């Protein structure tokens, strides 16, 4: 498995990601406005290719994927897909945070605080590992 921040993603995935960046959902835009430009102290990328997947948001520094799940993620097929995708991402030692579109719309500040606290926790874990 590749260790670059794209984990061997093929060119087709990059093309899809580029289109998705142009067509972000309202909730993705809401989060992007609060996490872009290192507002949380780390660089967060949007619609980022990771192997054969595209993460809504990704912070390579702490290996964190942030997903905004719309209604389609509630279907049994998509739930199954999300579970298998999360298992693969965890094999890359990537942490995953998931939020529903309702959470983003109704509790934006809480969502951002959870992202911020997860980033801080992951930074501390990384620091602890490097000091061992």
Beta-strand content: 15-25%
- Shape, principal axes of CA atoms: globular
Order of helices and strands: HHEEEHEHH
Q: How many angstroms does the end-to-end distance come to?
A: 25 Å
The CATH topology comes to: Endonuclease, Chain A
Describe the protein:
The protein has 132 residues and is α+β, with helices and mostly antiparallel strands. It has a single domain, classed as Endonuclease, Chain A. 51% of the residues lie in helices and 19% in strands. The chain contains five helices and four strands, in the order ααβββαβαα. Strands 1-2-3-4 form a four-stranded mixed beta sheet, with helices on both faces. The chain is globular, with a radius of gyration of 15 Å. The mean pLDDT is 92.
Short description:
By secondary structure, the protein is an alpha+beta fold.
Keywords, separated by commas or semicolons:
alpha+beta, 132 residues, Endonuclease, Chain A, 4-stranded mixed sheet
What's the structural blueprint in terms of helices and strands?
Layout (H helix, E strand, L loop, with lengths): L10 H12 L3 H10 L9 E6 L2 E7 L4 E6 L6 H16 L3 E6 H6 L1 H23 L2
Parallel strand pairs: 3-4
Antiparallel strand pairs: 1-2, 2-3
């Amino acid at each position: 498995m590749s260790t670059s921040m794209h984990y061997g993603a093929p060119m087709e995935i990059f093309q899809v990601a580029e289109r998705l960046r142009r067509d972000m959902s309202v909730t993705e835009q809401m989060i992007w406005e609060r996490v872009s430009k290192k507002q949380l102290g780390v660089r967060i990328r949007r619609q980022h290719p990771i192997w054969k997947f595209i993460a809504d948001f990704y912070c390579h520094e702490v290996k964190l994927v942030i997903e905004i799940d719309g209604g389609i993620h509630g279907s049994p097929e998509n739930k199954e897909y999300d579970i298998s995708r999360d298992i693969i991402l965890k094999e890359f030692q990537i942490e995953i945070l998931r939020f529903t579109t309702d959470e983003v719309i109704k509790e934006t500040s809480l969502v951002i605080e959870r992202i911020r606290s997860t980033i801080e926790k992951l930074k501390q874990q990384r620091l602890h590992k490097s000091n061992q």
